[in-house]
Structure formats: C-alpha cells, structure tokens
Automatic annotation (TrEMBL), chain A:
Residues 138-181 are annotated as: Disordered. It is found in: Cell membrane. GO terms for molecular function: transmembrane transporter activity. GO terms for cellular component: plasma membrane. Residues 1-29 form the signal peptide. GO terms for biological process: amino acid transport. InterPro entries: ABC_transp_permease, BCAA_transport_permease, TAT_signal. The chain crosses the membrane at residues 200-220, 254-274, 286-305, 325-349, 381-404, 410-442, 454-471. Keywords: Amino-acid transport, Cell membrane, Membrane, Signal, Transmembrane, Transmembrane helix, Transport. This is Amino acid/amide ABC transporter membrane protein 1 (HAAT family).
UniProtKB/TrEMBL annotation, chain B:
GO terms for molecular function: ATP binding; ATP hydrolysis activity. This is ABC transporter domain-containing protein. InterPro entries: AAA+_ATPase, ABC_AA/LPS_Transport, ABC_transporter-like_ATP-bd, ABC_transporter-like_CS, BCA_ABC_TP_C, P-loop_NTPase. GO terms for cellular component: plasma membrane. The keyword Transport applies. Residues 58-304 form the ABC transporter domain.
Automatic annotation (TrEMBL), chain C:
This is Branched-chain amino acid ABC transporter permease. Keywords: Cell membrane, Membrane, Transmembrane, Transmembrane helix. The chain crosses the membrane at residues 36-58, 65-85, 160-180, 213-233, 245-276, 296-313. GO terms for molecular function: branched-chain amino acid transmembrane transporter activity. It is a multi-pass membrane protein. It is found in: Cell membrane. The keyword Phosphoprotein does not apply. It comes from the Bacteria. One of its GO terms (cellular component) is plasma membrane.
Length: 483, 331, 328
C-alpha cells in the first residue's frame, strides 16, 4: 500500500491538471463561439428577433421546395393564438414569451388534391432567434421518398430557460426529420417498404460507425461510455463548423472532423482515462465520470449552436434513385464512405497485429497482458479510434439527414446501446450486425399506421428489452461463467 | 478505498508459496470418532467412478454444461456421502468450479438432474438451495467489504422478520431475533478467532481471515451440507492448518463437506473421499490414498511430468494456481 | 451592492425552493438505488416524468388530490417493475442502459402527438389545469409572509404552502429511509451492493430485494416529479437526461449511502448553482449572451460531477471507508 502512494498521488496531480485543462479549454471555446453563434442571422421577416423578442415562423413549401402562398397556419402557445397566412416569402410573428408553440396547418386552405406531410409542428421560441416549423404540401399521400428526403423540416428548438436548473431537452429527434416519415394511414405499399428498408440500411451503416467504437471501449475497458453520444454530436458540429465557418471542401472537412474527434479521444485518455486506470479506479466510478463528461460536452456543443438545428451542407439535397430507393446523393456517398471505413476496420481488427491485439484484450485483458501485449497502449488506440469513428458517424448522419441539433447524440446513444446489446457487448462485429438491424427496424417502424415518427426510436428500446429477456449475451456474444 | 483495495489484492496473490510438509499436515489431522466412523463406512465402497454410496446426501446424474462448442462439464453419475469430507480435485480447467456452480444453482446445466436430501434440485435457484441447507463459499472470497464482520454474520442468519420490507419498519418485530442471532454470531466468531474483529469492516481483514469469515458466515445458515470452493487458495500458510482444522470440525459437527481444491497435500490428509475431474469428466474417485496412485489421475494431473510426486508444492502452489484460475475467471 | 444582495437573496431562496425539495427527494430515491443497493439507475428523470404525468392527468380527470398522489406513486412503481423485470437478473450496466433509454422514450411518448389529448404533447400541461385541488388544501390564510429576507405568497404556485408540503414529503421520506436502512432489510441491500452472489449464496432472494429497492426509489422519484411540477407546469422537455444528471450530481455531492446526503446535496447544489448563474450573468454580461452563461454553468456542473467522482467519491457526508462505489 505504502509503496503505491507516490504513484497514486502523482496520478491524482495529473488528473487535477487534466480536469482543469479540459474545463479551461471548453470555457475558452465558449468565448469563441459566442459571437459566431450570435451572428447567424435570419432571413428578412416581419418579426426581427433580438435580445427581447422571440419569433415563430411557419414555412409552407410545395413539392419543389418553393414557398406555397395562401395557406393558413395557426400558431398557438401559452396564452397566445394567431392565424398566419403564408406568402411567397418568409412570414413570422413575434410571440409574447419563450416556450413551446404549436403550429397547426389549416387543411381546408390547401390546394385541391394535396395534403401536408404533417398537420402539426411544435417549435420552441427563444429570445434572439426565429423558431421555424415547416410543412410540405404535395399531391396524393405524404411525399414518401421522392426527392424530399433530406429537406430539414425540423424547427429550431431547445429552450434552456427554466428556472429550476436542468436545461430543456428540446426537439425530439435531434436529426432533421426527413419529411418522409409520417405515414398517413393504411398499410404501406411494397415500394414504401423497400424505400424504408433502404433508409434503414443507411441509418444502420452510419450507426455502426459509432457503435463499433462503443463496443470496443466496453470490451477493452469494461466501461459503458455514456459520453459516446456526445462524441457523435461533436462530429456533426465539427462538420458544420469546418464546412460553414471555415469554408473547407467537404472531403477535407471529413478528414478534419475525424482528426479533431480522434484528438479528443487521445486527450481524454491522456488526462482522464489513463491516470484513472493507473489509480485502479473501479469501472462503476468511471461510468459516472462518462456521465459528467457527457454533460460537459453537451453544454460545450450548445455553446456553439445553441438550440438551433443546423445544416452541414448549405445546398439542397440532390435525390438519386438506385435500385428503387431514393436517397440524396450525399446519403449514398455517406453510405459508401461508411462501408469503406467499416471494411477497413474489419481488416484492421482481423489482419493487423494491433487489431488482433485489440480483440485479444477485449476478449481477456489479463491473458493478453500475460502474452506481452500492453493493454494500456491498446486502450489508448481504442479511445482514439472510437472517438474518431463516432465523429465521422456524426458528420455523415448530419449530412445524410440534412440537419442536426445538439440532441443528436442523445438519441443515438440509446440506439447504439440497443445495437451493441443486440450484437453482444464487447464484440465489434456484433455491434455492426446489431446496428444494421436497429437501423432497419427504426426506419421500418414508421410504416406502422398511426405511428408518430418521434416514437420510432422506441423500437430501439423495445428490441433492447426483448434481447435482455431472451438472450442477454446478444446474438454473437457468449455466455460466461458465474462466480 | 479503491486504491487500498487494488493494492492489497495483488499482495495476497503473491503470498509466498505455501510450504507445508507432510508432518505438519499430518499433525493437523484430528483423529476424531466421527473421522474413524466415516473412514470405516467408506472403506466398504468400491473406488470406481460413479459408485453408489451407503447414505448419499447429494446425487447427480448426466450433468452437462456447454459453453459455445466446448463441453465444460460432463458428469455421468456422482454421489456424495452424508457426513463425510469429499474433495473434488483436478487440474486447472477441469470444470470443477463450473460443476460446483451447477450444483449450487449458480449456473444452469444444458442437461442433467441431481437431488439433495432426496429432493430434485436441478432447476432450483441458488437462494432457495441455500435455504434448504446447502450453502457454499467462493474461490475468490466474497466478504462483504463495507459491512462489518458482525454485519456479515447477521446477514447470513435465516428467517429474520426484519428482512421483510414491512417488518423492517417496526423494530420490536425483529429486535429479539436480532439479539439471538448476535449471540450465535459471536459464538461462531469466537470459534474462528474473529471475535475481536467484529466491528471492523470485512474489507480490512487479511485474505485468510476473509476465508474464515466466509466459512463462519456460512455456518450462520445452519447448513446440512457446506460447499467450499478452494478454501486454501491465497491463504497465508500459517492459517492453512487452522483452516483445515475448521473443515474437519465441520464434519465432526455432523455436516457434509464438499470442497474443490488444487493442493493435493491438504486433500490427502483431511478428506475421506476424493473425486478427480479432468476435462469436464470424473476420471477417478476413491479414498485419498488409493486415488493418488491411480494412473488416470496421474495422467490427468501431471501430463508429461510423470516422474513428479503428486504432492509437489512447486508444481501445485495454490497461490499460483489461484491466480491462473482468477485470470481464467475474468473471461 | 444592491446587485450583490439581490443575488445572495435569490441564492438563499434556492435553499428552500420547491424545486430543491423535488431534487432532494429524487436524490433520496436514487440513493436507495445506487447508494444502498448499487443499482445504476440513469433514468431518474423518467420516473419523475411518470409521476408528474400520473399526478397531473389524474387530477385533470377529476381525482381528488390524495388519489392523484397515489396515482403518481403508482406510476413510478409500475415503471420500476417494467424496467426491473428484464434487467435485475443481469449485470449492472444493463439497468443503466435500459433506464437511460426508457427515460428518453417516456419523454418522446409524452411529447408525441399520439397521446396529446392526455399529455398535452410537446407543450405539456399548463399548471393551472391540475394545481387546483392541491392549492385548495392549503390551511394557510391568504396574503404574503416574510421570513428573514425571503418573502412569498402564502397560497398559490410559488408559495409557502407549496414549500411546506414539498419539504414535509422530503422529511417523511428521510424518516422512512432511516427506518428501513438501519433494519436487517437495509443490511441485505448493502450486502447486495457489495456482492450479490455472496448474498444469494446465503439464501436471500436477491432479485426480490433489488426489485423492492428499485420500486421504492422509483416511487420516491415519481413523487419528486410531482413536487417538481407543483409550482410550474408539466413540460416533458424540462425533464430529460439533464435532470437525471443533476440528480446524480446532487446525490454524489451530498454523499451516497448517507441519510442526509441527498438533502444537503440538493440545498448546496442549488445555492451554488444559482449564485454561479446570476453572478456570471451579471459579471459576464458584456462578454457573452445570457444563453451562453446558462451553458457555461451547465458545463461547470458536468466538470464538477467528474471531479466529485474522481476526487471525493464519498461526497461531503460519506465515510471514506464505506463509500458506495463498487470496489471490485
């Protein structure tokens, strides 16, 4: 015990410095972010948001993404109700107080033979910004697939204005809804099923990028990293910043995003996880540290983008049909990137020395250490790789789905856990398989008549619970000996 | 706390190799009346695998446990004699602990049945088994570190109305039981030389003391059969003798003891019957002296080292074996 | 100087605010889960939201206050059962994963349009729709009362009555926790926290004990949700993951597995948090917008949580020898 004291106290010092450095870094980042975030001005509206004014704006678009005039939208909120008629340009109204407002489209004012993709949108009005709620109006049923996939219809959100302390959680999905998710009524046609299957594969592949890392972290350290969701959001944020603020071309932005995110993993392992490992901190304690980290990261992200929903690619999505599935060109490219990266990962884990060592440590750290592998080095590589991949996943998700908010990672974390549990915790390939299944189930679940799109993620939880009841070790996991 | 613990544990595992010569061990053996009776009874039993015992308390048939493609346990038939000390030995990875887990309800078999005191218990939960009189200890001691020694003991006492959520609210319902349990606990602790430690956190005890506490705690449940998983692993040599003495005392008090062990030395001197496992199967059983000479045992245990004495300490150092097994456990 | 005393009084008010009582109660429940039993519940906000909806919807449907109170408690118990059955026989992290997921799903369900007739969708339920029966119970005369620097209405939402009721509930909860944790029942819970296999080997039905603890803590959580919405409104977006994390911070700050840790933690936390926010808002007004001050304060809570866990895992009141973390 006494012999270990100096090491323990040295680790303690490193930790103290590390935590302070993290705090300082994030705080200064906030200073930088403040003016930039405030400069994102809105298009000309009849209501100009400032420090004391909050605006709400209904946006009605036709199938060609052009504003559709003459549609009545009711804006209702706490003690406030007003009907606004859409015009060729933007319309907005000032609302008396911040909070949640419901925008309801008057279906009687729609052109003959058309319907809206939703009758209601919820937005959260905030001082100094315009909360938009978008409706798409087209012929026949809701414009399933057909080129409209990636238009961001998700409004601004995310008030943090409650007095009680905890910030509001804001919009539900965190990912721009694709405007194709709400099925109006009746069971779907095959083309719809096929289309959603394609969306599911897309979602699954992008999800897999993040969950493979989560699984590797679990395998090598035993930690269920609750901060992994925020690592994904961080990727989306960096993608947004590097494309829109720094003006980098997208491929360069992807590389920058991966590098910076991987850098955060390296930094974390340097100042946090490494020293804690040396101290022999129990896993349960480490898991709570990841909760603190998740909270800290979440607020850092909010400092940059607030509650707004942001687009990584400024231009409108170009639809591209392949094999009867219509997704945006950017989505197809993202999927291709994901497949290549996952392939590279598989090669790395099975063919390279370090990769094999990683799997060995994940299998049995003590035994691996006995055979001369340095688990410490492997764990560092895993943190770097996992955070880098999570960043890539976040950026590609934001590109594919059109937009993102700070809640992106929160919802993804749930799905990642479901995927990793389904595949068998700690197995990288199980996480891949689990992700694809979860992606498909989540996207297909919107085909159930009457299912609101915000509840599609509930299918993730459902799968999680079913797996735990039936086969807790997951599809590819092994049962382990007790005692 | 965390730092203390992690630094303490390796220290235990690196305990000097136990140096016990046959003389000290032989001196440990108490030549009790019960021991003679049991030896006599078992002398009439033919030493062959799966043999029936005159008065079996535990009887297992066709027990199989597979992990993935590997069959960890495949036992055709085993009977354990009531009131005797039976040792379950075998090389590392022989499936001893897995078999033990199956018997005590901590793992579910792929197939097989077994009965305890004539009752089928193959699908019974571990807790229920313990309540019916079959209590176990663990290879890596499970002292409840942040409870005091006395609390550890009281926790084990059965049928305390205060352990019911609604009973807990009304102290008069359980204060009497609690008092009687405390007296009993102190008596047992006295016997195990732990009485003066009763208010210490169990985590502050040495490895050997934790083993003793675990055994003492098991006694609080008034068991008919006590199952010890490697009671000697990682224990200071000075304590091994007293531990062996305690195990014999259990038998002399009328309990049945089944224990898993690596250390052949200890096994030879205190057990009445030895069962040898290798690769998941039982390869031999019989009284200690005859089993040691069994060719199947020598093969299973030593592989290429035929010329080594079975009791060779450098080879069967329990501390080393415990560490190996501990590593295996983490898988 | 005026500014300073205003900030101080505001922070002082947090010590007895109904929201602080709500956090304290939620942390008491979490303490039963984590501190005494070692259960990783990372979805306490889900329990709170269930309790808030249960109470508000029951009242709106015409139930008298105490019936709505029971409905609120029942909602938490039900959620605990649903989440406990698949997870409590498995390794600890599964409960963590399932609770954090379920809390989010409950929030989605609450704000979805599917049940908006009951839950009010994303805008939630306005306070005026369900506060009536509770405020009618107040024995206090109308008017305002000043105690020291603090002045509130006697009756109404943000009133002395709400405060008295909220802290009475907390007091009862502390008393109950004291009674059950010093009993043999509490000893079994602590044993499970240390090593559930050992306790199982001694003949205790570990699953049943864990379930009892989960349900009790969940009921505390759901009643905390009731207290949380008494002075305000039911807004699902205010009861998400961040709320859970704050409750964790409160509990660990005060000291897990201690009787008064959650209460002390809640008071101290909100005193400092309010001081920090109002102070920074005044001090940094020229440097950053008010919104970013909120974010900065939240960031500091996150970092504080990490620091507590790393450097003082036993919290303020905890005994270093008996801290609640799993030492394996």
């Amino acid at each position: 015990m006494t012999a270990d004291r100096p090491i323990a106290s040295a680790a303690r010092r490193i930790l103290a410095v590390g935590v302070a450095a993290l705090a300082a870094a994030t705080a200064s980042a906030a200073m930088l972010a403040a003016p930039a975030a405030a400069s994102t001005t809105d298009v000309a509206t009849t209501c100009t948001p400032d420090g004391t004014t909050a605006c709400v704006s209904p946006v009605v678009l036709d199938s060609d993404n052009e504003p559709l005039p003459g549609i009545d939208v009711t804006i209702a909120g706490p003690g406030f109700e007003q009907v606004v008629t859409s015009t060729d340009g933007p319309v907005s109204v000032a609302v008396p107080e911040v909070g949640t407002y419901t925008l309801t489209i008057d279906e009687d004012t729609l052109p003959e033979g058309t319907t809206a993709n939703a009758t209601e949108r919820q937005v959260t009005a905030q001082l100094g910004s315009t909360a938009r709620g978008a409706f798409r109006v087209g012929e026949g049923v809701a414009p399933e697939g057909g080129g409209a996939t990636d238009e961001p219809t998700e409004p601004a959100d995310g008030g943090t204005s409650d007095g009680a302390g905890a910030g509001g959680e804001g919009e539900d999905t965190g990912i721009g809804a694709d405007g194709s998710t709400q099925n109006v009524s009746g069971w779907p046609a095959f083309s719809q099923v096929w289309q959603q299957f394609g969306s599911g594969i897309r979602f699954g592949l992008l999800l897999a990028l993040a969950s493979v890392g989560l699984s590797l972290i679990y395998g090598t350290t035993g930690i269920s990293a609750f901060s992994h969701g925020e690592q994904v959001t961080l990727g989306a944020l960096l993608g947004f910043i590097s494309v829109n603020w720094w003006g980098l071309p997208v491929p360069v932005a992807v590389v920058v995003t991966i590098l910076v995110c991987a850098g955060t993993g390296w930094l974390q392992d340097m100042v946090l996880w490494g020293p804690l490992r040396k101290r022999g901190t129990p896993v349960m304690q480490l898991m709570i540290v990841t909760i603190g980290l998740s909270m800290a990261l979440q607020y850092v992200i909010q400092m940059f983008i607030g509650g707004r929903s942001q687009r990584v690619l400024p231009s409108n999505a170009q639809p591209l049909e392949l094999a009867g599935i219509t997704l945006s060109t950017a989505s197809w490219i993202s999927m291709a990137v994901a497949v290549v990266v996952i392939g590279a990962m598989a090669w790395f884990l099975t063919q390279t020395r370090i990769g094999q060592a990683t799997r060995a440590v994940s299998d049995n750290a003590a035994l691996a250490a006995a055979t001369g592998i340095n688990p410490d080095r492997i764990v560092r590589i895993v943190w770097i790789m996992s955070t880098g991949l999570a960043g890539l996943s976040g950026m590609l998700l934001a590109i594919s789905f059109g937009s993102f908010t700070w809640t992106l990672g929160m919802i993804l974390l749930l799905l990642m856990f479901a995927a990793v549990t389904l595949g068998g915790m700690g197995t990288a390939f199980g996480a891949l398989a689990g992700s694809i299944v979860i992606g498909i189930v989540v996207e297909m679940s919107t085909l159930i008549p009457g299912m609101p799109s915000s509840l599609r993620y509930a299918s993730g939880l459902l799968i999680l619970i079913l797996v735990l009841l039936v086969r807790p070790q997951g599809l590819l996991g092994r049962a382990v000996r007790v005692g | 706390m965390s730092a203390e613990n992690t630094t303490e544990k390796p220290a235990e595992n690196t305990t000097e190799p136990v140096e016990l010569d046959d003389e000290t061990l032989a001196a440990t053996v108490v030549d009790s009346e019960t021991a003679r009776q049991v030896t006599e009874t078992l002398a009439g039993v033919e030493p062959k695998v799966g043999v029936a015992k005159p008065d079996p308390i535990l009887r297992a048939t066709g027990v199989q446990r597979r992990f993935g493609g590997m069959t960890a346990v495949d036992v055709d038939h085993l009977e354990v004699q009531r009131g005797a000390i039976t040792a379950l030995i075998g090389p590392n990875g022989a499936g001893k602990t897995t078999f033990f887990n199956l018997l005590t309800g901590f793992d579910k078999p792929n197939q097989g049945t077994w009965e305890f005191e004539g009752k089928q218990i193959a699908r019974t939960s571990a807790a229920k088994l313990a309540r019916s009189g079959m209590v176990r200890t663990f290879q890596l001691t499970k002292a409840l570190s942040r409870l005091t020694v006395l609390q550890n003991m009281l926790l084990a006492a059965p049928d305390n109305p205060g352990e019911n959520l609604f009973g807990a609210l009304f102290r008069p319902l359980w204060s009497g039981v609690e008092k009687r349990n405390t007296e009993k606990a102190l008596e047992i602790l006295e016997r195990f030389n732990l009485a003066q430690k009763k208010d210490d956190f169990a985590g502050s005890l040495s490895g050997g003391q934790r083993k003793l506490l675990e055994m003492a705690r098991a006694l609080m449940t008034d068991p008919a059969m006590i199952m010890l998983d490697e009671p000697m692993a990682g224990v200071n040599p000075a304590l091994v003798q007293s531990l062996l003495g305690h195990i014999q005392a259990l038998r002399d008090d009328g309990m049945t003891v089944l224990f898993v062990e690596h250390d052949m030395h200890a096994v030879r001197h205190i057990s009445d019957w030895v069962v040898v496992m290798a690769e998941g199967r039982i390869v031999a059983e019989g009284p200690p002296t005859s089993v040691m000479q069994d060719q199947a045992v020598v093969d299973a245990y030593l592989g290429a080292h035929h010329d080594t004495d079975l009791g060779d300490d450098s080879l069967l150092d329990p501390a080393v074996l415990a560490r190996l097994e501990a590593e295996e456990e983490k898988r | 100087m005026d500014e300073l005393s205003r900030i101080l009084i505001q922070a002082l008010g947090q010590l007895i605010a109904p929201a602080t009582a709500a956090y304290a109660l939620a942390a008491i429940g979490l303490n039963l889960h984590f501190g005494y039993t070692g259960l990783l519940n990372i979805g306490q906000a889900g329990f709170m939201l269930m309790g808030a909806y249960g109470f508000a919807i029951a009242t709106i449907e015409g139930a008298p206050f105490w019936l709505a109170f029971l409905v609120s408690a029942g909602a938490g118990a039900l959620l605990a059962l649903l989440l406990g059955i698949p997870t409590l026989k498995l390794r600890g992290d599964y409960l963590a994963i399932v609770t954090i997921s379920a809390a989010e799903i409950i929030r989605f369900a609450g704000r979805s349009t599917l049940w908006a007739d009951y839950t009010g969708g994303a805008s939630g339920l306005a306070g005026s729709t369900y506060k009536g029966p509770f405020q009618a119970l107040s024995p206090l005369p109308d008017g305002r009362t000043t105690i020291g620097p603090l002045e509130y209405l006697n009756n109404g939402s943000d009133s002395w009555w709400t405060r008295i009721f909220a802290w009475s509930v907390v007091l009862v909860a502390v008393l109950l926790v004291w009674l059950i944790t010093r009993s043999p029942w509490g000893r079994v819970l602590k044993g499970i926290r240390e090593d559930e296999d050992a306790v199982r080997a001694l003949g205790k039905n570990v699953f049943a004990y864990k379930m009892q603890a989960l349900v009790l803590g969940g009921v505390a959580g759901s009643l905390a949700g009731l207290l949380f919405v008494l002075p305000i409104s039911v807004a699902p977006d205010n009861m998400g993951r961040t709320l859970t994390f704050f409750v964790w911070t409160v509990m660990l700050l005060g000291g897990a597995a201690t009787l008064f840790g959650p209460v002390l933690g809640a008071m101290l936390f909100f005193f400092v948090y309010m001081l920090l926010r109002t102070g920074m808002r005044a001090g940094l007004a020229d440097v950053m917008p008010a919104q970013n001050v909120e974010h900065l304060a939240g960031l500091m809570v996150g970092v504080a949580l990490m620091c507590i866990v790393i450097f003082r895992p036993q919290g303020i009141l905890g005994n270093k020898k008996e801290l609640a973390f799993d030492v394996r």
